[in-house]
Amino acid sequence: MTADPSKPHLYDLNILSEVPVATTCRSGNATSDLLCARSYIDMIDEQIAFLYARRLGYAAVAGMAKYKQGVSLNDPTRNQAIAEGMAARVRKYGGGDGEAGRVMGGEGCQIFASLEFEKEQIRETCDSGFDEKIQRVCE
């Protein structure tokens, strides 16, 4: 995983367990706190992007397997399980019970973006006419 080489790293981006909790940025000085928080947010965003790209790769493998089996890419039961599982993980790590879990869990369209990526990969690798309808229920 690579980040902007011109910026110093506050922790090792390759080790998720090294990400400190947000209290690291609570100094009592609002200007310093904002700069600190933004620095960590930028680094965490780098990790999220890296992990999501990896996740999309696995989604493409799953999509190709479903395609070869002749089954729909979109499985509402599986989607619900993914959404609920992600919401539970967000809660487990202190993200709360509200919107954050729902967004990461699927209502924020993560699942549907992955399904669209699966379709693109099938089109690019073996069936240029493949066009399963993926209904996007999130906005």
From TrEMBL:
GO molecular function terms here? Answer: chorismate mutase activity
Q: Which domain of life is it from?
A: Eukaryota
InterPro entries in UniProt: Chorismate_II_sf (IPR036263), CM_dom_sf (IPR036979), CM_II_prokaryot (IPR002701)
Q: Please report the name of this protein according to its UniProt entry.
A: Chorismate mutase domain-containing protein
Give the transmembrane region(s).
Answer: none
Read off the Pfam families from this record.
CM_2
- Looking at the record, the residues that make up the Chorismate mutase domain are 38-121
One of the protein's GO biological processes: chorismate metabolic process
